[in-house]
């Protein structure tokens, strides 16, 4: 099928739903550990409490990719129904998660939230490959990254912004502050509205051969065999990219799960107070606990604000690449290699910086790697797979994202960072080393079509 080149605004419209998806991911990644700690979780238990998220992605994305490949409605298209379903459930989960009365409830909402986000997210990756000719693939994924950067920055700052408007950061023991509750409610609204915008402003191409599509759709009991067959026959380039993805996502899962406890302890020196260390029958001790808890909540807002910087720098990265790739070719492999190494340096620098203001530099470097992770692997992959199987291939590719997260959650983070020392900040050093390894793994990729984008 000859696909026409799309304008910037057409690509923007089809990618705009990612603003809401990233609101969900940024609020989840920046503040779920804070919610867990507020509800009484110990630091060493936090990674395992995140395990529902990657496990959900491992199951959901290949299924949604497979189903969306086999879906067609003249009005709603192939991918858009899944955007909408995921957005509705994600918005509900985002609203209720900070109202969780207990740890197990919060962990359950995290599972629902991540499953719902994955339902929306996977078809967005496939939509870029569906809609754009090969000459615009890099450009399309970069525009997607630009929108993700905007969403990351705004959502990461939401609790701090809401707090500046006078909403309280203080709360009773075991209760999430109102500033976080309001931020998550805003995120729920933005998620739904942005997805609806894409659903109603974007059209999709019908299957190229409708008769063949109908025959494939009518085949019975093919789901598991098809998934297994596609896993077994994945291209060599996809396997090599999988190695890069493994170390990349181990690093970022470490960031999402442990940045808040690491930085509130090491940089801000306001760790989450442990109730067992206070005599809660004494009014004086209760007041001390409240003061320590409020300090932790305020420094957590600051951590979120600084984390938003990586969204800004990923946005700058995307803007530069968007202008460049609209007219010129790039070496995707080298761009990804150097971006990941810069991010690794950013993580490691957190251990050495003398004051919180230096976190701007650390997260700026991390943002370069994040911007590349969200665009370059998908651009390289989409150039080396069968376009008729783009949905299921993108879903299977997600295995290389979730497996490292599962390993990290099951003890990989705790084991590796404690090889360096007991302080939680050592987890950021592990994240940095992992990202640098990911960068050098790009040297494994040799497929010329995957490496180089040639404008036509």
TrEMBL record:
Keywords of this entry: Membrane, Transmembrane, Transmembrane helix, Transport
Main localization (coarse): membrane
SUPFAM superfamilies for the chain: MFS general substrate transporter (SSF103473)
Membrane topology: Multi-pass membrane protein
Localization: Membrane
Molecular function (Gene Ontology), one example: transmembrane transporter activity
Gene Ontology CC, one term: membrane
Protein name: Maltose/moltooligosaccharide transporter
Species name: Aquimarina amphilecti
């Amino acid at each position: 099928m000859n696909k026409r080149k799309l304008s910037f605004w057409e690509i923007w419209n089809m990618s705009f739903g990612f603003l809401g998806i990233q609101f969900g991911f940024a609020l989840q990644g920046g503040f779920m550990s804070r919610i867990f700690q507020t509800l009484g979780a110990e630091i060493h238990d936090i990674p395992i409490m995140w395990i529902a998220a990657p496990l959900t992605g491992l199951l959901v994305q290949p299924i949604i990719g497979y189903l969306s490949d086999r879906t067609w409605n003249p009005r709603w298209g192939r991918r858009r129904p899944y955007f909408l379903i995921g957005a509705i459930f994600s918005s509900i989960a985002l609203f209720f998660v900070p109202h969780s009365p207990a740890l197990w409830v919060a962990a359950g909402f995290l599972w629902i939230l991540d499953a719902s986000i994955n339902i929306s997210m996977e078809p967005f990756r496939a939509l870029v490959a569906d809609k754009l000719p090969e000459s615009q693939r890099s450009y399309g994924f970069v525009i997607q990254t630009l929108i993700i950067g905007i969403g990351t920055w705004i959502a990461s700052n939401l609790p701090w912004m809401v707090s500046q408007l006078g909403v309280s950061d203080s709360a009773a023991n075991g209760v999430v502050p109102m500033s976080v509750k309001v931020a998550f409610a805003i995120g729920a609204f933005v998620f739904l509205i942005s997805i609806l915008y894409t659903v109603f402003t974007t059209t999709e191409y019908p299957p190229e051969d409708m008769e063949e599509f109908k025959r494939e759709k009518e085949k019975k009991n093919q789901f598991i065999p098809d998934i297994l067959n596609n896993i077994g026959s994945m291209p060599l380039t996809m396997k090599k990219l999988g190695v890069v993805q493994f170390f990349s996502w181990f690093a970022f899962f470490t960031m999402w799960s442990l940045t808040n406890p690491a930085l509130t302890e090491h940089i801000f020196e306001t760790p989450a107070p442990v109730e067992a260390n206070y005599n809660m029958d004494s009014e004086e001790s209760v007041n001390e606990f409240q003061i320590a808890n409020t300090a932790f909540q305020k420094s957590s807002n600051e951590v979120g604000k600084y984390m938003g910087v990586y969204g800004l720098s990923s946005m700058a990265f995307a803007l530069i690449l968007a202008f460049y790739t609209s007219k010129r070719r790039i070496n995707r492999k080298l761009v990804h290699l150097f971006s990941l190494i810069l991010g690794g340096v950013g993580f490691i620098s957190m251990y050495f910086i003398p004051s919180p203001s230096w976190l701007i530099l650390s997260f700026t470097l991390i943002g370069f790697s994040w911007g590349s992770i969200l665009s370059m692997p998908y651009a390289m992959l989409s150039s080396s797979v069968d376009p008729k199987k783009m949905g299921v291939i993108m879903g299977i590719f997600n295995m290389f994202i979730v497996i490292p997260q599962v390993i990290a959650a099951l003890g990989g983070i705790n084991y590796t960072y404690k090889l360096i020392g007991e302080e939680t900040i050592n987890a950021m050093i592990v994240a940095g080393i992992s990202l640098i390894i990911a960068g050098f793994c790009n040297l494994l990729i040799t497929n010329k079509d995957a490496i180089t984008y040639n404008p036509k």
